[in-house]
Design brief:
The chain has helices at 26-36, 54-61, 74-86, 100-106, 126-136, 159-162, and strands at 44-48, 66-70, 93-96, 115-118, 145-151, 164-171, 175-182. With 183 residues, it is α/β, with parallel strands linked by helices. It has a single domain (28-182), classed as Rossmann fold (3-Layer(aba) Sandwich). It has a seven-stranded mixed beta sheet. Helix 4 runs parallel beside helix 5 (126-136).
Length: 183
């Protein structure tokens, strides 16, 4: 695992040992960031279920002003901290070792996210719970791009009832990215 592009291009990143996290592959990460492109310059990025921090660190390397990393698992949070220090991005990364829904409730109302990326554990229906919390949050605006990494069989039939609209969906061999905005 490495940083694909930007100011920290090619720097290797640690990943969390064990099967509790699934680091996004370099190829999928590159496709994702090619899709969101230049919109990262100066943005505020939120990485939920951050794992090793690879997505948020990629966003910082490509020009995000700040990234908030939310990761409850202690080993994963330590890995994020190590990766931020190694890449010298710790001054722009804010790590919160807390439950995702609790983090969303605790953010200051003045904080507005440009991008929210979430990669929850598969097959636990956490996507709906988190999207419900995000919909109630003042941190999400109609311009906020929400990106969910999910298994191919995850169904997002409910998003319109929550007040979101699917803009696009990109499928890979084993998973997909679903891009949502507030309606």
């Amino acid at each position: 695992m490495r940083v694909i592009a930007g100011s920290r291009k090619s720097l290797p990143l640690k990943s969390v040992d064990g099967m509790n996290t699934r680091p996004t592959t370099d190829r999928v990460k590159e496709t994702l960031f090619n899709m969101i492109g230049s919109d990262l310059d100066g943005c505020i990025f939120l990485d939920l279920f951050a794992g090793s921090g690879g997505i948020g660190i990629e966003a910082l390397s490509r020009g995000a002003r700040t990234c908030y990393f939310v990761e409850k698992n202690k080993k994963a949070a330590n890995c994020i901290r190590d990766n931020l220090n190694f890449t010298k991005l710790a001054d722009r990364g804010i790590l919160q070792r807390i439950d995702v829904k609790q983090a969303i409730e605790n953010f200051s109302d003045e904080l507005k996210f440009d991008f929210v990326f979430m990669d929850p554990p598969y097959h636990q229906d956490l996507e709906k719970d988190v999207l419900t919390a995000l919909m109630k949050s003042d941190n999400i605006t109609p311009k906020t791009q929400i990106i969910v990494e999910a298994s191919l069989d995850t169904d997002f039939f409910y998003v319109r009832t929550l007040g979101f609209e699917i803009q696009k969906e990109k499928k890979y061999k084993t998973n997909k990215h679903v891009f949502l905005i507030r309606r």
